[in-house]
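__Record contents__

***
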Amino acid sequence: MNAKVRTAVRTLEAFEAFGRSQKPLTLSELARAIGVPVSSCHGLVATLRNRGYIYSVGNNRRVYPTRRLLDVAEAIVRNDPLLEFVEPVLTRLRDDTGETVILGTREGDGVVYLEVVEGLHTIRYSAKPGEIKPLHSSAIGKVVLASLDEGALAKTLARIALERITPATLADEDALRRDLEDGRRRGFFVTRGENVADVMGMAAPAAPGGQALAVALAGPIERMDRSFDAHAERLLVAARELSGLGAD
């Protein structure tokens, strides 16, 4: 990893550390949180302070992010060309089912959540945009795997570790392939406690503006099972609506 990339990673890790701690940190506390020497952390904090992203709290021994990062993030999200026109479809799917709705895509050998519309129930599946999930244990990941031709699928499965995330994870290649084939026949893909215990996910491919994405529903297995067919029908309708967006 070159120096510029390492600095970028440390910057992101620093903000994530504040997100976890939710309180001001001393230089040494921040250094421990991101796993770097205090001297390196000092330079990082000085740069962020000079750019207005961090300020000193109290006696200057502790630091905390300013709201500048939030302002920048909000400006980015407000003008996201994808989320602007998919949001109504995602929200309607959430309202129709009551469950959490996720839009995601492939990112390397995983999937990244681009948008999450939280469910309406008190007990629900919770996630955040930017979370990375495995290909083999997530419903969106199965959409990705099923879209690959045989050669690409074989290479991907040989490269990724079919880690057993939960006792229900399909860590056997033959079992996973059978599950992918079932999903292709149905038009949507299902996980039952394979990525998060007691959570069912179902996902279908969608291509708003021609982008290869997937839309998913997720919630407690027992509740999802009770409305399985109705939820699947609504999911497929939403996937078709999303695929029609941005088409000239």
